[in-house]
Design a protein that fits this description.
With 265 residues, this protein is an alpha+beta fold. Helix content is 29%, strand content 27%. It has 9 helices and 8 strands. It has a 6-stranded antiparallel β-sheet, with helices on both faces. It has a two-stranded antiparallel ribbon with strand order 1-2. Strand 7 and strand 8 (243-253) form a beta hairpin.
Length: 265
């Protein structure tokens, strides 16, 4: 999660205008007020406003039309990792992204989940593997783990209940008795989507890491790509307070939809 501390004034101004665009104050296709008027409305100097508008133009939220002025783009880019949002929403800027369940199971901790979920050795963690597709093509492969049920019961009981209420696709039930049998591919939400829905009124924070890698043999078969296909690997940990409740790996192969990321200081 990007810290709000020590942000440059132009970044703060950028976000004020971007928030107004996403909130509908300046609807898609509308013309922004003139620089003097907008500067007066926001209580800022014109040079600062001009710099923020330039950044908004570079990022595709605002376009400049000769003889008209600055207008809000018809399809403003979706917000990125500065807000905790399911990957299928972030990738769905050009059209809907479908989540297909590959596996819903319960497994013991791995090095990854021990590190990021602080899971004890004998914990039982829900594991969801999903393929995200856009226009019939593989866009990403997601692997998501929820924290141990005892941890969730204390840190986020609504998330624990939402996970327990949903049977795995195809009738297999991913519970403490073992993995769901027969992954039965089909439409399904991602685990992060379930968490986001269960978190109304609950403050979530997340940290993500982005690295370059290759898809590898198994993931290549799932994504329909050669094993040596370059890919971006995003690791993500979502917390409630200081307690990690979800950890994930998202693999996006070359040619996948762009992933919006906001960076500021």
């Amino acid at each position: 999660m990007v810290s709000v501390e020590q942000r440059r004034p132009v970044v703060v101004l950028y976000e004020r205008i971007a928030d107004a665009i996403h909130a509908g104050t300046y609807p898609p296709g509308s013309t922004l007020p003139s620089e003097p008027r907008l500067a007066a409305e926001l209580g800022v100097s014109r040079p600062a406003l001009r710099e923020a508008l330039l950044l908004l133009q570079e990022d595709g939220l605002v376009t400049v039309r000769r003889g008209v002025g600055r207008t809000v783009s018809d399809r403003p880019p979706r917000r990125g990792f500065e807000h905790v949002r399911p990957l299928e929403e972030l990738l769905g800027t050009a059209g809907p992204v479908r989540v297909r369940a590959l596996l819903r199971a319960v497994e013991e901790p791995t090095d990854f989940t021990t590190q990021h979920l602080l899971a004890p050795a004998r914990a039982r963690l829900r594991f969801w593997e999903s393929l995200l597709t856009a226009d019939g093509h593989a866009a990403a492969l997601s692997q998501e783990w929820a924290a141990d049920e005892e941890v969730l019961a204390t840190a986020h009981p609504a998330f624990a209940e939402a996970l327990a209420a949903g049977p795995a696709p195809g009738g297999g039930v991913a519970d403490g008795g073992g993995p769901a049998t027969g992954p039965a591919p089909g439409p399904a939400p991602s685990m992060l989507a379930v968490l986001a829905t269960a978190s109304r009124g609950v403050q979530l924070t997340a940290h993500s890491g982005i690295t370059a890698t290759l898809v590898g043999q198994r993931r290549g078969e799932q994504l329909g790509r050669p094993a040596d296909t370059p890919a971006v690997l995003v690791t993500q940990v979502v917390r409630v307070g200081g307690t990690p409740v979800l950890a994930a790996k998202h693999m996006l192969p070359t040619g996948a939809a762009p992933l919006p990321v906001l960076q500021s200081n």
